[in-house]
Amino acid sequence: MKKNITVLGAGAMGSRVATRLLEAGYSVSIYNRSRSRASALINAGATYCETPVQAVARADIVISMLTDDLAARAVWLDKKNGAMQGMKPGAIAIESSTLSIACITELSAVFAQQGISFLDAPVVGSRPQAESGALVFLVGGSQATLARVELFLSFLSSAVYHMGENGTGAIMKLAVNAFFGIQVAAFGEVTGWLKKSGIDQQQSIELFNKLPVMSPALQGISKLLASENYQPFFPIDLVEKDFAYMLKQAAQVNAQTPCVVATHKSYQQAIKKGYGGDNISGVVRLWGEC
Predict the structure, then answer these.
(1) H/E element holding 274?
(2) What is the Cα–Cα distance from 7 to 59, expressed in whole angstroms?
(3) How far apart are CA 227 and CA 242, in angstroms?
(4) Pairing mode, strands 61-64 and 4-8
(5) Could you tell me where in the chain the CATH 3.40.50.720 domains are found?
(6) Which of 163, 196, 197, 249 shows a CA-CA span of 20 to 30 A to 29?
(7) Would the pTM count as exceeding 0.70?
C-alpha cells in the first residue's frame, strides 16, 4: 500500500513533484499559500488543505519545496497552523527547499525536540527533472531515517546521495548552486568580451561546446543563450538568494570565498537592472549591454 504524502508548496517544483506522485497513484495532500496555484493539482486528485497543520494530519511523509527561509519557517513552525503541530507519530519530514544553514539547523533542533524524524534533502535539477523523476537528492540526516524513505526519494530522482548529518545536504546544495552560478557568470563575461572584440557570438558558443572546458551544465546554458531564451527554470532572484545564504555560512566558518563574493555582486547587479525574474542565463545580459 502506497504511503500518504503531503507536499508543502505548489510552486514550480512542488507542483511537478505532486503531479508525478498523483500519476503514480499516491494519495497526495497539498498546502499552498495561494489556493489558485494548486487548482491543477486539485483537478488531478490532490486534496487541498487550507493550513499546513491540516495538510499533514494523515501524512506518512511530508516534503516541503518552498522559496526561502521565511516561507519554510512559517509553514513548519507557526505555533497555530505550522505543519509540525499536526504530524502524526512516525511521520517523516523532508525539507527539499534550498535554505540557509541557520534555518536548517533551527528546523533540525525543533524536530528533534518533538521526536520527529527530519531530513534536509534539497534537490539538484529544475522543472524538467522534477517532471521526469530525474532530480538528485542531497540528503542530510540519519542513515536510518533515509532508509525509510529511500524508495520514495528514488521514485522522484535519478540519484540519492547521503551527505552526512542534518545540515550537510543543505551545505552541499549551496555549494552546487554557487559553483553553477560562477560558471554561468564567467561564461557571460567571456562571451560578452568576445562579442565586443569582433567574434561572432554564435560561432564562439559553438566552438566552446566542442572543447573540454565546457561542463554539461554550461552546454545547456549555451543552448538557451543561442536562442536568447531566459525562461526562468532557475530565476536570478533565487540564484542571488542562494549566494547570500552560502556567504553567510562561509563567514561563520571563516572560509575564504572571493569568487563567490564577486559573482554574487553580478547577480545583485542583474536584479537591479530588472533581470531578477529571468533564468540564471539572463545574467549574461549584463556584459552584452556594457
Answers:
(1) none
(2) 9
(3) 26
(4) parallel
(5) 4-165
(6) 163
(7) yes
Q: pLDDT at position 137, please?
A: 99
> Average per-residue pLDDT in the chain?
96
Query: Start-end ranges of CATH 1.10.1040.10 in the chain?
Result: 171-288
In percent, how much of the chain has pLDDT > 70? 99
Q: List 95's β-bridge partners, or say none.
A: 64, 120
CATH topology of domain 4-165: Rossmann fold (3.40.50)
Give the gyration radius of the chain's Cα atoms: 20
Beta strand 92-95 with 117-120 is parallel
Identify the band that residue 268 occupies on the pLDDT scale cut at 50, 70 and 90: very high
CA dist., res. 152 & res. 59, Å (int): 13
Q: What is the CATH number of domain 171-288?
A: 1.10.1040.10
The H-assigned helical ranges of the chain are: 12-23, 39-43, 52-55, 69-77, 101-114, 127-132, 143-155, 168-196, 201-209, 216-226, 236-252, 258-272, 285-288
C-alpha cell at 25: 497513484
Environment class of 221 (CB within 10 Å of its CB; exposed 0-12, middle 13-18, buried 19+): buried
**Cα 26 from chain centre:** 23
pLDDT band, residue 201 (cuts 50/70/90): confident
Q: What is the pLDDT of residue 290?
A: 39
Whether 133 contacts 157, CB under 8 Å? yes
